[in-house]
Amino acid sequence: MDNISLLERTDLWQQERQEAIKALPRSGKAIQYLGKEFRVYPGTFLPFADSHPLVNNFHINPGESVLDVGTGSGVIAIFACYKGAGRVVAVDVNPSAIRSAKYNVRQHGFEHVVEVKQSCLFQQVGQDQFDVITANLPFRIKPAHDIVAQSQWDTDFKTNTGFFTEVGKYLKPNGRIYFSQANFGAIKEIKALAKAAGFSVHSLGSTVAKEVDKAGYAEFTVFLIKRMELESAI
Question: Which Gene3D superfamilies match (predicted)?
Answer without folding.
Answer: Vaccinia Virus protein VP39
